[in-house]
Write a structure and sequence with these properties.
This protein is mostly helical. Helices cover 22% and strands 0% of the residues. The chain contains one helix and no strands. The chain has one helix at residues 35-44. It starts with 34 loop residues before the first helix and ends with a helix. InterPro entries: Cullin_homology_sf.
Length: 45
């Protein structure tokens, strides 16, 4: 798909990786899930 296109020769990339020690915290939110969703949620816990 890049045939005939000019591609820049110098690309700079920076990647930041979040680890568990630096993961942002969010307040707990309560939700009432329908039974169909609750059944699948319990399989993932």
């Amino acid at each position: 798909h890049m045939h005939g296109r000019e591609v820049p020769g110098n690309i700079t990339t920076f990647v930041s990786v979040l680890t568990m020690g630096f993961w942002p915290t969010y307040p707990t939110v309560s939700a009432i899930l329908p039974p169909e969703v609750s059944r699948f949620r319990s399989l993932l816990s």
